[in-house]
Amino acid sequence: MATVSYYKTKSGRRWQVQYTKPDGSRTRKRGFPTKAEAQAWIEDQGVAQRKGTWVDPALSNIPLSELWDPWIAIKKMRHGTSTWKPLDSAWRTHVKPRWGLTPINQITTEQLQTWIVDLSENKSVTIVERCLGIIRGMLDLAITNKRLTTNPATAVHCPARKRPKQVFLSLEQLEALASKCSDDKKALVWLLGTSGCRWGEAVGLTVGDVNPLRGRISVTKSASTVGGRVVVGATKGRRDRVIAATPAVFELLVPLMAGKSPDCLLWEKRGGGHLTTPSKRSWWHSAVDACVAEDSSFPSLLTPHDLRHTAASLLISNGASVKVVQAQLGHASAKETLDIYSGLFDEDLDSVIDAVGRAQRAAGSRRKNKGEPKVSQKAD
C-alpha cells in the first residue's frame, strides 16, 4: 500500500510517497516535483516487485565512493600490484573527483558519455578506458549487491583504439642485440626473446626457479616496476606456469647460478635488488642504439616487451600450435593468443594448405591404385 502526499519546502511544494517494502517495513521517497510523477514512480515500483527486480531506493541512494573499497579489494585479491595500482591512481585522479559523491541511482548513461568525450580530449585512450572500466566494474558490483538493476555505464563508448604495431626481431637481429650486452644481460635478452617471458617475470626469477636438467623454468612471481619502484607480486592473472627454454639459454643461465643459494636472484642491479624496467640511459638503450648504428633496419624504439612478441613469432614460425604458444606465454586462453598473434598464424596458411594439398593428392593416388584390377598372367 502506497500513499502520495505533499510537503512544503523553501522552493515550493514537493510530493512524497509512503510505501511498504517487500519485507513489510514502511518507508518513504521524497522530492517529486508533481503528484503525477510520484504516482508514476509507485506504478514502476509495483511492476518491479512483481517481476522480482525491485531494488530498495535507500540502497541505491549511496555515493559511488562507498563502492570503491569493496571493489578494489576484489581487484587486489585477483590481480598483482602492477594491475591494481594504475586503477587506484585513475580513481583518485579522474573518477573520484567527478563521481565520488554522486549517488549511484543518479548516474546516467548520457552524463557518463559526455564525461568520457571530455576526458578523451586530453587523456590517452588507455586512461579513458581505465576510468570507464572502473565505473562499470563498481556499478556491476552494485547490481550484484542488489543496489541497482541496470548499469548505465554499459552502453558508454570509448574512443577507438589503434592497434599497436607489433615489432618482431629476426634471429639475426636478436643475436646482434645480445652481442651488444654484457654476459649477464646477454642471457636476459636471449631468455626474453626465445621463451616469451615478460620482463617482470624474468627479472623476478631466482636460482631455484631454473631447472637446467629438465630444461624448464618455473614462473611464479613478477617483479614489476610501478612508479619507479619494483613491486614483487603474483604473475599477470595469477597464472603460475612452467616454461621451456633452449639449451643455449640454459648455457648462459648456469654461470649466473653458480655459487648462489636457491632464493638468490639471477639478475640484480648494482647494490642489490631487482632490476627495474630499463630507462632511457640504460644498458638496454645503449645496446639498441649500437644495433641501429650498424643496421638502419633495426627497430630504434625496441622495448623489452617486443622480445616477447619476437619469442611468439619464433614459436609460431617453427610450428608451435596455438595451445603451446598460450601455455608458454601465460595467456588466459587460446582466444587471447589468437587475438594478439592472429597475423602470425595467417602467415603459415600457405604452407598448411600446401601440406593438406599434398596429403589430398597422396590419398587420391592410394585410392586409385587400390581400385585398379590386378593383371593376371596367363600361360602360353
UniProtKB/TrEMBL annotation:
Xref: PROSITE patterns: TYR_RECOMBINASE (PS51898)
GO molecular function, one term: DNA binding
Pfam families named among the record's database cross-references: Phage_int_M, Phage_integrase
Keyword Magnesium set for record: no
This protein's UniProt keywords: DNA recombination, DNA-binding
Limits of the Tyr recombinase domain: 164-354
Protein name, UniProt field: Integrase
